Amino acid sequence: MSTIVTSSSVTGSSNIYVTGTNSDVDSSALIEAAVAAKLAKADTLETQIDTLEAEQAAYEEMDSLLTTLSEALEDLSGSSDDSAFSQNSVYLSSATLSTPTNYLSATVTEEAETGTYSIVVEQVATSHKIASSEQASDTALGLSGSFTVATSGGGSVEIEIDTDMTIEDIAYAINLQTDTSGVKASLVRTSDGSYTLTLAATDTGVEIELAAGSGDDVLQSLGLTDADGNIANELQAAQGAIITVDGLTVTSTTNEIEDVIPGVSLDLYNSTAGETITLEVEQDLSSLQTVIESFVDAYNAYRDFALAQQEVDSTGGAADSATLFGEVMLRQANRAIYEALLTNVEVDGTTYTLADIGITYGDDNMLEIDAETLEDALLYNADVVQALFSASSTTSTSELGVVGLPGSLESGSYEISIVRDPDSGTITSASIDGVALNVSGSTLSGVSGTTYEGLWLVYTGEEDATVTLTVSQGLADTLIDTLDSYINDTDGLILGRTESLGSAISKKEDQISRIEQQAADLEEYLISYYAKLEAKIEAANITLAQLEALLNSDD
To answer: What is the Cα–Cα distance from 543 to 134, expressed in whole angstroms?
Structure first.
């Protein structure tokens, strides 16, 4: 006799095993053991995948930290269009006015050049304001007619009035067309139950123009004009703004004045009554200090990661958290970053390093900032700070100007050869250290795919020339170029490594799938095999029983 047993298989399915009293064979245990043996290699592969995934995640974290460091350096790079060194701030001061910002404010753009300017606000621009005579607030005025409202140089609108309209209705009708006329109406409560209608030009420096139309002389009835049609009650005259900048008189119809000082916008609030305000455009040292601090923070965050990958356990082996312990790429990146941070520059014959501006190495090669030293360097040696971080260049003639420098161009001297056509005077060819440059008018540029890609020069000379270009790469440009080889999202070393790990993981997952399928096939085969075996044993037992019964019957 056979016993049917339902069991959950090792492969995860529910199968029926045949276990028999005939054979005394526990087929369930045998099948499970055979399948488990088949799956043992898959378990090993799963462990290997866990290791590879941890390594892949560690490289992705490394890429993220190095990208953050590179982005922080971009703001200090000479090749950046938005370099922190090109950012300016504006400061207002006065020897006689305690709060200059009560009289004007100023903002700057990247185009602003450093300098000091003396400003006197002679007159601020005001809008024209007039008023009616006092009118009952909710009583129909009984007027019927029309009038026109306009501003000098602006649009004109016609206002229709009927006998049922109140002063509030008239104000509403005027405001419906404010966008066209440039005149806004308001009601001021001047006594119990009575209001005065005021009209104000929406722009400064322009006058309100009123003219009677058909029907009743509504304007005169309201007290806005006199018998001659002139404004009856002017509250504020229209006038433009007048300022002097370094003694030069400037007029404006508004209190917002731009481009009198290149890259500086002024907003006027009050007349300074002849007193002078000093406006200074200076490098934004506060923002620059913040950018430098961000660079240090980004480096230290990466350094924390690098140290974690070097940790050892009590036996001297790699700690569990040191996923990239001993990885060549990590060691190479650490060394390249460290070497870049040792960059030194020469300014006016003196050599400077990061330590000279207050940035030094502390424990575990973490960067530390001496705030006082950095502030002094920014205040008194800003050119040294810029030279340390940002690429700079000089040429042996003022006729060759440098517009752009590629970060890949190493520090050193380069020979620029320029050939002009003797008849037309146009530049026919140019090269740098023997490598041809693109020529477009007076502009010379590096050819794409060469070391000089990103180099932009302008030559204004009239004859053939050989010019020496001297380049000094700053720390930021050097390190950005170094980091790009690791974090480039097209061919970066880290991308190549993570893709390789991903490919290895996929292959092992495919192997696991094949092993699991083979185990499932083996399980199915063994179930069938033992079922048939039990059936044969049971049939043999039945035959044996029949024979024994026949033999016993003869007795």
So the answer is: 129
Which tokens is 78 given? 């000479």
**Side-chain-side CA neighbours of residue 488 (13 Å):** 10
Amino acid 414: pLDDT = 94
Domain coordinates in residue numbering, the chain: 88-125+240-283, 129-236, 293-381, 396-470
Q: How far apart are the C-alpha atoms of 530 and 33, rounded to whole Å? A: 14
Give domain 129-236's CATH architecture.
2-Layer Sandwich (3.30)
Report the b/e string of 8-35 with b at 16+ CB within 10 A: ebbbeeebebbbbebbebebbeebbebb
Residue 1 has pLDDT above 50, yes or no: no
Contact in structure between 137 and 306 (CB atoms under 8 Å): no
What pTM does this model have?
0.67
Name the nearest CA neighbour of 457 among 473, 439, 477: 439
For residue 503, give both structure tokens.
């490919």
In the chain the first and final C-alpha atoms are separated, in Å, by: 27
pLDDT in tens, 464-494: 999 999 888 888 988 998 999 999 999 999 9
pLDDT, one tens digit per residue, over 436-451 is 999 999 999 999 988 8
